[in-house]
Amino acid sequence: MCPPRYFAVEYAINPWMDPNEPADAGRAMAQWTALRDIYRELGHTVEEIEPRRGLPDMVFAANSGTVIDGRVLGARFRAPQRAPEAEHYRRWFVEHGYRDVLMPARINEAEGDFAWTGRMLLAGTGFRTDPEAHAEAQEALGVPVLSLRLVDPRYYHLDTALFVLSEATDAAPAHIAYYPEAFSPGSQRVLARTFPDAVRATATDAACFGLNGVSDGRNVVLPLEATELAARLAACGYEPVRTDISELRKAGGGPKCCTLEIRK
């Protein structure tokens, strides 16, 4: 995670950002701190990277890399405003002992568009990550990749429209939640066929970034407003943990955007 010390809405690179409605950096820091503390209270280890002045979106650490079995595929941003973040995160990985770090040749916004199910990597495209980056990820990480096309600009990253509730095991398949209307008709059919038991979110839950959640297989961290989705998840046996991310949402981010999951 990256503290939002320099968080601001200074430009618009997604439909949620409006520089005429500036964010409160202090409030964003308080919300981020609460999210970090939730992870710690749930027993997870949180590692932090030092934020850099002039990079207000560096708080969205999910876009910094994809880590599976200790192998790291870095990021390559589409927006020039975020491009310098990639090198800062690459250095962090190297300085923290990761030796198998590959930087992509194609536009690849990391866990913003990649979701690991335990068996395959779900990969989004349509607005940010190049479709060619999906094949690059398969080669770099050595895992099968399933491509999905996003069609609603409000849900410009996969992690705004889908997240993994529990990874696949020998005893059970992966379980996901997603908002069908964010995907092309073909991708909707692929998701329905691949994940017949998925939790389908409503438009209301999607609009508050309810799909930008983080699950450890039991506890599911969600935006405060995602009430209907929380109820559906509770009915499935999960423990919803809701938190306020309203200030961070002004830049198009939520719990998952702020969280890179490191799988060693």
From TrEMBL:
Superkingdom of origin: Bacteria
Active site location: 157 (proton donor), 257 (nucleophile)
Signal peptide: none
Coiled-coil features, chain-numbered ranges: none
Protein keywords: Hydrolase
SUPFAM superfamilies: Pentein
A GO molecular-function descriptor: transferase activity
GO biological process entries: arginine metabolic process; citrulline metabolic process; positive regulation of nitric oxide biosynthetic process
Gene3D superfamilies: L-arginine/glycine Amidinotransferase, Chain A (3.75.10.10)
PANTHER family given in the database record: DIMETHYLARGININASE, DIMETHYLARGININE DIMETHYLAMINOHYDROLASE
Family listed: Belongs to the DDAH family.
Protein name, as recorded: Amidinotransferase
Source organism (scientific name): Amycolatopsis acidicola
Origin organism lineage: Bacteria, Bacillati, Actinomycetota, Actinomycetes, Pseudonocardiales
